[in-house]
Amino acid sequence: MKKILVYGYGNPGRQDDGLGVHCAKRVKEWAEKHFPEAIDVDMNYQLNIEDAEKISHYDEVIFADASAEDIIEFAFTTLKPSKAQLEFSMHAMAPAYVLYLCHTLFGKQPKSHLLHIRGYEWGMKEELTGKAKQNLDKSFRAVTMLLTNYLSDN
Questions:
Q1: Buried residues in 111-141 as b, exposed as e (16+ CB within 10 A)
Q2: For residues 106 and 19, what is the distance between their CA atoms, to the nearest angstrom?
Q3: Can you say how many angstroms the Cα of residue 123 is from the centroid of all Cα atoms in its chain?
Q4: In Å, how far are 21, 30, 89, 123, 146 from 26, measured between CA atoms?
Q5: Which domains does the chain have, with CATH numbers?
Q6: In Å, how far are 44, 93, 150, 153 from 88, measured between CA atoms?
Q7: How many CB atoms lie within 10 A of CB 50?
Q8: How far is residue 14's CA from residue 145's CA, in Å, rounded to a whole number?
Q9: pTM above threshold 0.90
Q10: In whole angstroms, what is the distance from residue 128 CA to residue 21 CA?
């Protein structure tokens, strides 16, 4: 059976920035009931260099993050390794760069996607806005349907 990692990241203390983490928590609860042997879930405030080693153990990775982009509710994009410009003061690492490091350092390139979940407010509060909660619900249903279809075909 294929192994999948769902990795949510963001800061739940900054309102809608926590959408990726909230999505990962929901997927974790769902996966433990439906596909405990095939799906692992992780979450963090941000992606790190060490995540390149982590994702090297999976066939597929879905990164989940909040997005301020003008998307309707959520969107999936396919990731390809990308060598990003890195600075010592950088506090955020793109998932495409983590994928690049995985390929460069470990010779692995799991199929990877980014789930962008539309957020609206980024203040210092530990609660999602109403619209973001709706987007979270819709994106959660879409990702679990995608995972179910993918794992049922294998």
A1: ebbbbbbbbeeeeeeeebbeebeebbeebbe
A2: 30
A3: 21
A4: 9, 6, 32, 23, 15
A5: 4-152 (3.40.50.1450)
A6: 20, 11, 38, 43
A7: 10
A8: 28
A9: yes
A10: 11
Residue 22 contacts residue 30 (beta carbons within 8 Å):
no
Give the model confidence (pLDDT) of 95-120 as tens digits.
999 999 999 999 999 999 999 999 99
Strand partners, 93: none
For 3, the token pair is 């192994």
Structure tokens at 71: 């998307």
What pLDDT digit, counting tens, does each position of 49-87 carry? 999 999 999 999 999 999 998 888 999 999 999 986 555
